[in-house]
Amino acid sequence: MRRILIIDDEDDIREVAALALEATAGWQVFTAGSGVEGIAVATAEQPDAILMDVMMPGVDGPTTFRNMQQNPLVAHIPVLLLTAKVQGVDQRRFASLGLAAILFKPFDPLTLAHQISEALGWKED
């Protein structure tokens, strides 16, 4: 069973994404409402991947990702950024960070697990 961590400051987004991944793919989902909390959960739970929002108060997604890369306990976990920003300049900036993928909001809950699996090269069961 795949284990995924969703880091997003919006309760509704976390809930919809978690329900979608549990219902459509049977994945175990962990959630966090901030980057700091997300790093703590990732360290404790060692998920297979992290789906993280770009825009969060305090520490944003790209900064959280850079912090994760400095932490040997979580640096190996692939991170997918979830963003509503679709400008080319933002996409290039995010791509240069070394992320596994960039997914866009609004996302389709029914295809989210497939998008994540495809981006990470996971074989779907």
TrEMBL record:
PROSITE patterns with a match to the protein in the record: RESPONSE_REGULATORY
Modified residues (4-aspartylphosphate): D53
Keyword terms, alphabetized: Phosphoprotein
Claim: Acetylation is one of the keywords in the record: no
Pfam families: Response_reg
GO biological process, one term: phosphorelay signal transduction system
Residue ranges annotated for the Response regulatory domain, each copy included: 3-120
Keyword Phosphoprotein part of the UniProt annotation: yes
SUPFAM superfamilies cross-referenced by the UniProt entry: CheY-like (SSF52172)
Superkingdom of origin: Bacteria
InterPro entries: Bact_response_regulator, CheY-like_superfamily, Sig_transdc_resp-reg_receiver
Protein name per the record: Response regulator
Organism of provenance: Edaphobacter paludis
